[in-house]
Structures are given as C-alpha cells and as structure tokens.
C-alpha cells in the first residue's frame, strides 16, 4: 500500500488516500475526509510505481 497526498477539489485541503500498487489501473469514488464530498480518484501504476494520479470532483 502507498499513502498518497493530494488536494481536495472542493475544499482545497490536503488529504491522503491509501493506494494498492498491486492493481495496475483503478478508478473509484472516495469521500473527502474533511468536507465529505465525493471525489473521483483514478490511478495508474507501472511496476508498482505510481505514474498517474487524478482526483476530480464528480460535479458536472
């Protein structure tokens, strides 16, 4: 598991998530631990190294 810090797209607070580096590509919804808004998290790992991370609001 890899702890990754990023900025919430709603409240701009720095939060962290635990990422499973054994899963090549992931996309899921995670609630912000500060403001509780839903965030679309997408990751891409190559050889257990995080090469892409996106955290976006799900509002349109």
TrEMBL record:
InterPro entries noted in UniProt: zinc_ribbon_bacterial
The organism's place on the tree of life at top rank: Bacteria
Pfam families: Zn_ribbon_21
Annotated protein name in UniProt: Cysteine-rich CPXCG
Organism ancestry: Bacteria, Pseudomonadati, Bacteroidota, Flavobacteriia, Flavobacteriales
């Amino acid at each position: 598991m890899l702890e990754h810090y990023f900025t919430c797209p709603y409240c701009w607070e720095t939060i962290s998530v635990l990422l499973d580096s054994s899963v090549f590509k992931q996309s899921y919804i995670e609630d912000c631990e500060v403001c509780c808004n839903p965030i679309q998290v997408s990751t891409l790992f190559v050889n257990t190294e995080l090469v892409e991370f996106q955290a976006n609001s799900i509002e349109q």
